[in-house]
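Hi,

Apologies if this is the wrong queue. I'm a grad student, and the batch job for NADH-quinone oxidoreductase subunit F from Serinibacter salmoneus produced an output file that my downstream script rejects. I'm not sure whether the problem is my script or the file. Here is the sequence I used:
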Amino acid sequence: MTDRLTPILTDSWDVPRAWTLPVYRDRGGYRALAKARGMSTEDLVNAVKGSGLRGRGGAGFPTGLKWSFLPAPDGGPRYLVVNADESEPGTCKDVPLMMANPHVLVEGVAITSHAIGCDHAFIYLRGEVVHVYRRLLAAVREAKEAGLLGSLEITVHAGAGAYICGEETALLDSLEGRRGQPRLKPPFPAVAGLYARPTVVNNVESIASVPGIVLGGGEWFSGMGTAKSTGHGIFSLSGHVTRPGQYEAPLGITLRELLELAGGIREGHELKFWTPGGSSTPILTAEHLDVPLDFEGVAGAGSMLGTRALQIFDETVSVVRAVARWIDFYKHESCGKCTPCREGTFWLQQIMHRLVAGKGTAEDIETLSDAAGNILGRSFCALGDAAATPIQSGLQYFREEFEAGTHTPADELFPPRASLIVPAASQEVPA
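Support response: The file is valid. Your script probably expects a header line. Output copied below for reference.
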């Protein structure tokens, strides 16, 4: 099964001091940047278009096409902003990538900046990950002092830690010093983004994939994955698996294959439900083990590929309790700008807490379904959708558990200690 892995971005993660410039250059680093500088901006954009690279931050929009949306140069500045505000529950790919291999991101930023005519690029990082912040600052400094960046300025900015700032326009407002809230679109960032100038906003993994495409060529990249979801990606497996971690593989691999690589579900248990792209994506079940993990395959199963955050839950877990925890998160992280999300997440939280406590009513379940349906597609940004989808999919596949919340607490039906992951020598856990 290991031949299904494609260690490209993750290939150097176990190399001593992989985050330093000398080690990165010894492994071929910055050769792609040298090659890119000998190419025209049009050729670079076309190379990324031809590769079929789609955004790795969740939406899956074609990266090269996004670059081509920038208007013709008018003599004013244009910007590249890298969205490193990774905060989706279950998602853990960009932070370890930046920690272990920050120079591949810096090189990707330099190549992309050259392709779009940018002289000042920004990396917007979550402020909580101070260790990654320091490592990025050091990588940018190393590249600058080595003369690799030329006149390009790269600013690494630490945000204050708000989930909403993962939305690209809220990120731009935060970067400008405003409160992080989504903007009305249009205008889109490509026309009026950072400081009202043409701006490209891309995810960390998207930009980090660019050096490989420049060196290997678009056909090399599109030779992996599927026809419409090309290339490789980092899949984050967490929860009730034997070996949780990051697995870099071609898009289109299945959860069944990834579970085999990860040693399967923990011994003595079986898969109950899982998320293909973090808590904001509709949950799937064991019947979806063979769904291709690409944009089209997962959408066809009724969910979204998202950030490829595969949260794995076995039969010991209460769906109601898990969904309630996610709703707590989304209610807390709602920026409050729009009524469906601000008020809707509050109502969802109250109902979910009653169901977890076994004090819900039959009317609660209908209200829950109705409220989620009225939030979905009606909120200002996708945060409202993120709160609604796990409830709708939970009701679709596990309605009987929600109905049980009208008479029995979730902790009685699914004792929390049964779902704990603890070392074999420490099985005695307080009740």
